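Hi X.,

You mentioned you wanted examples for the new student's onboarding notes, showing what a folding record looks like when two proteins sit in one file. Here is a clean example. The first protein comes first, with its sequence line followed by its structure tokens.
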Amino acid sequence: MVSEKTSPIAIVMGSDSDMKVMKSCIEQLGEFGIKPVVRIISAHRTPEVAADFAQNATDNGIKVIIAAAGMAAHLAGAMAAKVTLPIIGVPLDSGGGLGGMDALLSTVQMPPGVPVATVAIGKAGARNAAILAVQILALADAGLSEKLSDFKQKQKQKVIEKDAALQ
């Protein structure tokens, strides 16, 4: 068993190939001063590891799990089945010709009582997963709340500047 680093956010991916997308999630969290626990765990190839990780997440200080997977995309659901923590699912394009729609539907279509907050497919979704996780933590963390407000203000300013450049 891999010992967990202390972080309020964990990112789990079904495969190392998912890192090319999830790197944007890790970078976005870094902008808020958060270094997440990052793991490669398969809901199908390592189900015992997935269950163990989820069941011990709270004891390891994790407050939000971001789970990214393509194809069958069961990782977020596998995490949600084992914990009461917020789970954010990032559907990924597995290259099977469906553009990630298969993963989106697998991630979002959860049975009643086992919710997974699902974001967009790919890098935009990965970045939004990071921001959503920060929003969840900011409810009980004034410092993160302030960083989040600053982030939103910077986004607003960028749009104003782009508009002004067109005038």
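Then the second protein repeats the pattern, sequence line and then tokens:
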Amino acid sequence: MSRPRVAAFRPDDGRLADAAETLEALGADPVPDPMLAVEPTGAEPRTDADFAVLTSTTGAGLVADAGWTFDGDLCAIGETTAGALEDEGYTVETVPEEFSSAGLVAALNGRVDGKRVEVARSDHGSAVLLDGLESAGAYVHETVLYRLVRPEGSGESAALAADGELDAALFTSPLTVEHFLDAADERGVLDGALAGLDAATVGAIGEPTAETAREHGISVDVVPERADFDALAAAVLD
């Protein structure tokens, strides 16, 4: 029996290679197709807030590299981001039970009224977080740490899907969904790629990613309980 061909869309900064190794260990034939590239802005989060929110491992690495210090309540959306911050020597006080913007807003509701909250993230962050915190009475400031762009030449997986040669796709953020579709359109295979995904097993790392996929007509088969790549890969391969 042939190994299933599975596409992974992580940034090509070490994470894509790690994803390919994970898929190989699970018995898959990986298709590493970077749909995201990180462009740091050089901006640093404020240090005088009562709460600070980091939303990704990329952001954790950037603030650590900049030597950012923070004495308030540090919050992370998800255990993976919290672990990355703690590996850099930070103490994370708050991780919501639901790893999403809405989950963090719920976790902080009642605690941030009249407080200053710093949100440090990419240029594609959800408005749900800022609006929710402001509705909870917080004074919110956002720092864009990095921009997320689609690398040139991406889209091998879209071509494979259009040819019916892709068995599974692992979407790890709403933007990977959008960039996959952009790459497919750029290659002139959008309709075929969508049909190929419909015949494949589609995994999404969390409900926001799954919802974006569904909004674009992509049926999502798997959303793991734990929002990290290893859990997503294992669930899809199962």
